[in-house]
Amino acid sequence: MDDYLKVLLLVGSRLEQAGIPYMLSGSTAMNFYARPRMTRDVDIVVELEAPKVPVLLSLFQADFSIDEEEIREALSHQSLFNLIHFETVVKVDCVIRKRSAYRQEEFRRRRTVELQGQRIWIVSPEDLVLSKLYWARDSLSEMQMGDVRNIVDATSSMDWAYLMHWARDLGIESLLETVKP
After folding, report:
1. Which of 78, 81, 114, 138 is the most buried (most CB within 10 A)?
2. What percent of the chain has pLDDT over 70?
């Protein structure tokens, strides 16, 4: 896990340096809120615009595998591109922030944590629950549902009104009901 933290800190620092807003999400973010579990990559949501692509390339191309065409494709489809750290082979999924009302609100609610003396932007626990439920809506992935239960059990002050509002909007209200304490 040390390699993941090393890469997370490096990527976070460089995104800050470039003025590219971001937030840690996925299972790596869950490790800040609940019982940790292993993960294969680091998920980061980025608020990236086309004029920043050359800056992004210049910051990462020396020690990461990064592809300009993949980035531009991700921008046009609001999808993701990868960074792969040469030394550690840690993969970072950089997810382009979607333009939907919910994804804008989720990004607005991000918060910071301190990690080894560095500020890292991270998704709120409520929005992480909503994202994991949304990812699990079709597959009912037991891993995602287990992560959600883990976060809910470990977080004493969840904003259930916020969760219910957006769960209705995202069409995952029935899934949220299954994890309510």
Report:
1. 81
2. 99
